From TrEMBL:
<feature type="region of interest" description="Disordered">
    <location>
        <begin position="74"/>
        <end position="104"/>
    </location>
</feature>
<protein>
    <submittedName>
        <fullName>Heat shock</fullName>
    </submittedName>
</protein>
<feature type="compositionally biased region" description="Gly residues">
    <location>
        <begin position="74"/>
        <end position="88"/>
    </location>
</feature>
<dbReference type="Pfam" id="PF00012">
    <property type="entry name" value="HSP70"/>
</dbReference>
<dbReference type="GO" id="GO:0140662">
    <property type="term" value="F:ATP-dependent protein folding chaperone"/>
</dbReference>
<feature type="compositionally biased region" description="Acidic residues">
    <location>
        <begin position="95"/>
        <end position="104"/>
    </location>
</feature>
<dbReference type="InterPro" id="IPR029048">
    <property type="entry name" value="HSP70_C_sf"/>
</dbReference>
<keyword id="KW-0346">Stress response</keyword>
<dbReference type="InterPro" id="IPR013126">
    <property type="entry name" value="Hsp_70_fam"/>
</dbReference>
<comment type="similarity">
    <text>Belongs to the heat shock protein 70 family.</text>
</comment>
<keyword id="KW-0067">ATP-binding</keyword>
<keyword id="KW-0547">Nucleotide-binding</keyword>
<dbReference type="GO" id="GO:0005524">
    <property type="term" value="F:ATP binding"/>
</dbReference>
Length: 104
């Protein structure tokens, strides 16, 4: 959990600092602030529990994910990326189940 949180925080930091996302300065500041807060928390809580690390990751994701989702897809991302991926993932699974029956 610690490594996952640390990796996620630094990945976000690099993504934001390298300008890989087209986001507003306000959104950039929100993510940078939360990332800095998380990294500082990690430095000061080396012996935290798994639940504490997971809680920190959820907080960071709560700030970053909506901004990143909007940057990657805007309205299309909200309507197509996650739900479309889930629906798209379910349909081929159903088709895969039907195909062996058709081949038999």
């Amino acid at each position: 959990a610690k490594n996952g949180l640390e990796s996620y925080a630094y990945s976000l930091k690099n993504t934001i600092s390298e300008g890989k996302l087209s986001i507003s300065d306000d959104d950039k500041q929100k993510i940078e602030s939360k990332v800095s807060e998380t990294i500082s928390w990690l430095d000061n809580n080396q012996t935290a529990t798994k639940d504490e690390y997971e809680s920190q990751q959820k907080e960071l994701e709560g700030v970053a994910n909506p901004i990143i989702s909007a940057a990657y897809g805007g309205a299309a991302g909200a309507g197509g990326a996650a739900p479309g991926g889930a629906a798209g993932g379910a349909r081929p699974a159903d088709e895969v189940e039907e195909r062996p029956e058709e081949l038999d």
